[in-house]
Amino acid sequence: MTELHQRFGAVVRRRRIARGWSQGEFADLAGLSRSYSGEIERGYSIPSLATVIKIAAAFGVPPSELVEEAEGDARA
Does the CA dihedral 55-65-19-40 come out positive or negative? Predict the structure, then answer.
């Protein structure tokens, strides 16, 4: 597990919680399995570009916004 995995997962978790979604609700909206979405949030798995696009679509934002937020966490 790398710092990048952890930062991206933290972004996904923060946004999910801010929306009041359970992991299951988020997984359904993103078209992912609940276990895989949990692995992403915990930083155990880094999603492919196709999965990042699905995650971004679930949040209604461009994929670049998620990546920029994860990069910002590295600078903070």
Answer: positive
Reported as a single tens digit per residue, the pLDDT across 36-50 is: 999 999 999 989 999
Q: Supply the DSSP symbol for 57.
A: H
Is residue 58 a contact partner of residue 23, using CB atoms and an 8 Å limit? Answer: no
Give the global pTM: 0.90
Euclidean distance between CA atoms 60 and 1, whole angstroms = 27
How far is 10 from 56, CA to CA, in rounded Å? 14
Domain 3-75 fold is 434 Repressor (Amino-terminal Domain) (1.10.260)
CA distance to 17, 40, 68, per residue, from 43 (Å): 16, 5, 17
Domain ranges of the chain: 3-75
